[in-house]
Structure formats: C-alpha cells, structure tokens
Amino acid sequence: MQANSLGLVYRAGQAPREIPLAQVSDFIGDTDNFIWLDIQSPDGGLLAMLGEELDLHELSLEDALTTHQRPKLDEYGDYLFISSKVVTLADGQTVLGELHLFIGLNFIVIIRHGPSLDFARARDRLARQQNGFKPDRSAALYFILDEIVDQYQPVITVLSDRFRGLETRLLSGGLVQQDLKKLYTVKHELNALRDVIDPLQGVVLDLIRVHPEIISKELKVYYRDVHDHALRA
Fold first, then answer.
1. Which of 174, 170, 201, 208 has its CA nearest to residue 186?
2. Residues 41, 66: contact at Cβ < 8 Å?
3. How many Cβ atoms from other residues are within 10 Å of residue 223's Cβ?
4. CB half-sphere exposure, 227, CA atoms < 13 A
5. Domain coordinates of the chain in residue numbers?
6. What is the CATH topology of the domain spanning 5-153+189-232?
7. Cα torsion at 225, 148, 86, 164 (round to 10°)?
8. Within the chain, where are the H helices?
9. Percent of the chain scored above 70 by pLDDT?
10. What is the distance between the alpha carbons of residues 139 and 126, in angstroms, rounded to a whole number?
11. Secondary structure class of 69 (helix, strand, coil)
12. CA 36/CA 141 separation, integer angstroms
C-alpha cells in the first residue's frame, strides 16, 4: 500500500480490518462490506488504479487531482463527488487544505491535498457502531462533514479575537503601521474562511434535499445539525 494511505473494511458487528488499496475490488462486491479509503496527495497513476477498482469516471478523477477548487457536489451515476476545504491553524496562521470525497453504495474515498484532518475520530465513531449508527456511507459521510465543520469554529474564534484586539487598538489610537497590516491580513483570512464555509452549507443542504438515497432517514437530523453548525460558524 502507498505511504500516507489507508484502506479499511467495516462490517456490522465487527472491528474494521485493513486492506491493500490494490485489492479493493475483492471486497467491494459484498454489499455487507463498507470500504473506507483515505489517501494523501495521490499521483495520477494511483488514482487511475483506484478508478478501475471502483469504476470511477475520469472527470471526477481529474477533479480529485486538481487543487484550488471551491466546495461543490457532483453526481456521477451511482456515486457522488464532493470537494471541500479543511482549515487549520499553523503558527497562528490559517492554512487551507483540500479534500475530495467519492461516495458510492458501499464505499467512501477521501483524497487529501495539503494540511488536513486525519479523520481518526470519524473512523473511531464509525467503528463503534453506537447510537444507531451503522458502518455505511450515510454515517461515514456525516462523521467526516461533522469533523470538518467542527474545525471551523476554533479557527474563527482565534481570528475574530485577534481582529477585535487590533480593532480596539486602532480605535484607541495605539495601532502602529505594522499592526494595521496585521489587521488587514486577519480580515482577509476571515473573508477567505467565509468563502469556504458558505459553499459547504450549500453542499450539505443539497445532500439533504436532493440525495435521500445517500442520507438515511434516521440520520437526516444529524445532517441538519451539521448544516446549522456551518450556518452559525
């Protein structure tokens, strides 16, 4: 298996087990299996292999290799393709990573570019199979989106506090030229973060309204909570 990649098979009532990426097709035919694949910065060859294993359209594979995309949701026959952004803080500065998801009948593929979450918490929640959550695409996608949106608020809080502090100094006349540059930088970071969050709200809303085949009836309320959380961010 390629470094920085992870393949897991989940089954109801069982602990997940690791599988090689090249053997995904050996497990995908059994719909009692749910496949979780997570790959960091894949090259074209690896994605082409994955496309053959999972019968993924070449246009969605091209999108998964492309960075600097806005959050979006595309439908490709029997699977969905989602692009999103992940925001983290590094040395006090916001850092954007990119995330692409393939969501099929019994699989989810995570393609990560740049700094990102490792989704260990999402994998653990899926493995525990508690509170009515089954190891399926509806639960897996919810856990991923929930973790992405949860990450936004701490970043917004840090930037907002920083902005208010600089703004207070400006109004009191204690702001020097260097601080003025910092003020504009923080404002730009907040605006950039808004440009990430707002489209993701639309993606989650489309999932709820247009794709009931993805979101189980039992989990719809959880997806609405993710959407509301993004609205409040």
1. 170
2. no
3. 21
4. 15
5. 5-153+189-232
6. Beta Polymerase; domain 2 (3.30.460)
7. 60
8. 24-28, 44-54, 58-65, 120-128, 137-171, 177-210, 220-232
9. 98
10. 7
11. coil
12. 10
The crossing angle, in degrees rounded to 10, of helices 137-171 and 220-232 is: 10
Tokens of 22: 């090249």
- Taking the C-alpha atoms of residue 137 and residue 29, their distance in angstroms, rounded to an integer, is 15
CA atoms lying within 13 Å on the CB side of residue 141? 31
Q: How big is the chain, counted in residues?
A: 233
Query: 203 to each of 35, 38, 81, 161, 223, how far by Cα in Å?
Result: 23, 21, 11, 28, 11
Q: What is the pLDDT of residues 185-204, one digit of tens each?
A: 899 989 988 888 999 999 99
> Side chain identity at 187, as an amino acid letter?
K
Instruction: Output the CA–CA distances (angstroms, integers) from residue 119 to 37, 123, 146, 219, in the order listed.
Output: 11, 6, 10, 19
Mean pLDDT of 68-97: 88
Terminal CA-CA length for the chain: 38
Q: CA 102 to CA 86: how far, in whole Å?
A: 16
Half-sphere exposure of 139 (CA within 13 A, CB side): 24
25 DSSP assignment: H
Q: How far apart are CA 109 and CA 57, in angstroms?
A: 14
Q: Are 226 and 115 in contact (CB under 8 A)?
A: no
pTM tops 0.85: yes
Could you tell me what percent of the chain has a pLDDT over 90?
Answer: 66
Structure tokens, 30: 């059994």
Other beta carbons within 10 angstroms of residue 204's beta carbon come to 28
